[in-house]
Design brief:
It comes from Candidatus Egerieicola faecale. This protein is of the alpha/beta class and about 280 residues long. The chain has one domain: Acetylglutamate kinase-like (Carbamate kinase, 3-Layer(aba) Sandwich). The protein is about 40% helix and about 20% strand. It has an eight-stranded mixed sheet, sandwiched between helices. A two-stranded antiparallel ribbon has the order 3-4. Strands 6-7 form a two-stranded antiparallel sheet. Helix 4 crosses helix 5 and helix 7 runs parallel beside helix 9. The two termini are about 35 Å apart. The model has no long low-confidence stretch (mean pLDDT about 90).
Length: about 280
């Protein structure tokens, strides 16, 4: 790319930069984009760039593969019920150690390496996330259901120029630590912040009309269409809770929610700074 083309790219991005300047965007980071070193590096560069051009970006992360690895090291089998990790007392300790410790601080360090100013947080900091035991037909152990999100600590970080990096562990009134689904946490945080966008990074192209054909991507969905898409079986399985998070965030004031293909390098920039995008947008 020559200098003229570089200049043209920047000029073309100007309307999008203007639109997002000063706006809050919540990104849930996970999937292959979190495992692949190359993709992780690309995502962190995108986040730093977005922050430097004035986007008030909040990064919410999971860390399932790292939790699985640590449990394997101590001879404990990972167990899932309805897509959620069964979390006994020992697993809860591992989740806290891995998410609020290693994964969170690794991301903060990587953002710093690329020139970002990040602050690692978890749901327990400033009582950001208040939880109770999740009610379900099958006991999930210490899996939490969010009862309240207190955004002050997040806003304080943003107002002081930091990128808040949030791991999804929290404690109840008695101090018991709970594991929280990262998609759910990101949606509730975005709603409380009245974010412009909620972006859920995944390992899939987006919502497909035919699950076996990535060319059948549905680029845009109205929330009113979702029940019918579920009845048709187009939204099914693990996509249902993800899309329910998108719908909830829209109904609570978020302007746009997106399921984004994290396997594509710089997918955040493509989605936010071009007309085409690379995922499915919910409005």
């Amino acid at each position: 790319m020559d200098n003229l083309m570089r200049a043209q790219v920047l000029v073309n991005a100007l309307p999008y930069i203007k639109d997002y300047n000063g706006q809050i965007v919540v990104v849930k980071y996970g999937g292959n984009a979190m495992v692949s070193p190359e993709l992780k590096d690309a995502v962190m560069k995108d986040i730093v760039l977005l922050s430097l051009v004035g986007v008030r970006l909040v990064l919410v992360h999971g860390g399932g593969p790292e939790i699985n690895q640590q449990l394997k090291k101590i001879g404990k089998e990972s167990k899932f019920v309805g897509g959620l990790r069964y979390t006994d007392a020992e697993t809860a300790e591992v989740v806290q150690m891995v998410l609020a410790g290693k994964v969170n601080k690794d991301l903060v360090a990587l953002l710093a390496r690329h020139g970002g100013k990040a602050l690692g947080l978890c749901g327990m900091d400033g009582r950001m996330i208040e939880v109770e035991k999740k009610r379900s037909e099958v006991d999930l152990g210490f899996v939490g259901s969010i009862t309240k999100v207190n955004t002050q600590v997040i806003l304080d970080a943003l107002d002081n120029g930091y990128i808040p990096v949030i791991s999804t562990v929290a404690a109840d009134e008695k101090g018991q630590v709970y594991n929280i689904n990262a998609d759910t946490a990101a949606a509730k945080i975005a709603a409380e912040l009245k974010a412009k966008n909620l972006i859920l990074m995944t390992d899939i192209r987006g919502l497909l009309r035919d699950k076996e054909d990535e060319s059948t991507l549905i680029p845009q969905v109205q929330v009113s269409e979702v029940p019918n898409l579920i009845r048709q079986g187009i939204i099914s399985g693990g996509m249902i809770p993800k899309i329910e998070c998108c719908v909830e965030s829209i109904r609570r004031g978020v302007k746009k929610s997106l399921i984004l293909d994290g396997r594509i390098p710089h997918s955040l920039l493509i989605e936010m700074f071009t007309d085409e995008g690379v995922g499915t947008m919910f409005l």
